Structure formats: C-alpha cells, structure tokens
Amino acid sequence: MRSIISIAAALLMLASLGACVSSTETDPRKGGLFGYNPKAYEKRIEERKTKLSETEADTEKQKQQTQQLETSKQEKLTRHEVLKAKLATLYSESGKLESQLKTVKAANSRQEKELSRLKNEVAGLRSNTIKTNNSNASDADKQAKIKQLQQLMDELLEEAEALSAL
After folding, report:
1. SS3 category, 27
2. What global pTM score does this model have?
3. Which of 28, 75, 88, 141 could form a disulfide with 137 if both were Cys (CB 3.0 to 4.6 A apart)?
C-alpha cells in the first residue's frame, strides 16, 4: 500500500511539474521560471513599442487640433470685436445725425414731414443697432445686418444733407 501511495505521489509531482513546463503563458511575470518564452517576450515588447508610438502620434495629433482650435477661436474673437466696433461707430454716427436733425429748422410743412420721417428712421436705426449688438445671431448674420444698417445710415445722411441745404 505504501508503494501505491509513493507511486501516486510521484505521479502527482510529475504531473504538476509537467503543467508548469507546458504552461502557455507568455507573460514572464505570470508563467514562472519554466514558462518563460523569449520570443513571446520580444513580441510583447514590440507590441508595447507600437502602442507607445501610436499613443504618441495621437497625442501629437491632439496637440495640433488644440492649436488649430485655439487659432480659430482667436480669429473668431477678433472678428467679433471688429463687429462690435463697427456697431459702436454706427451707433455714434446715428447719434450725431440725430443731433443734427434736431437743429434743422423746417421751412414748410413738407420739410417738416420729411424731417419727422428722418428723425423716426434715425431712431429706428439706433434701435436696430442696439438690437444687433445684443442679439445672439452668428457673426456672419451680424455682418450682413451691419452692412444693411450702414447703407441705411448713408442714405439718411444724404437725405439729411439735402434737407438742410434747402
């Protein structure tokens, strides 16, 4: 009986040793001394180097995108500030025109009606300038509206000049 137990113990030890040697683990940290496979280890190193290169490339790409977005943001902020300055100038010019119209004396009722109409249009222009400045419209929409308001301002200036020349 002792010999059967001895033989069984020896077979069990051999089976355990065989399992250690035939381990399919390629990670030397997990496979133990007998499971070390140099080719698999080199393959893992290459995979890690490749992954590192990909990560570095992605990082560089993200940096470039961030730089492009920052540049775009600065350009938009500059355009926005230019639009605000144009609106401020337009508002100031319309205020000057409004002041000039207050000093104009109408010679007859036709001129009085024309003067009243000009005053109302200048007031509307100033109101639209404020609305445009405070709106949440895109810069392109604001640019179009500023152009329209500037054309109206030019027309009103010409009419006011013609009226005051009479």
Report:
1. coil
2. 0.62
3. 141
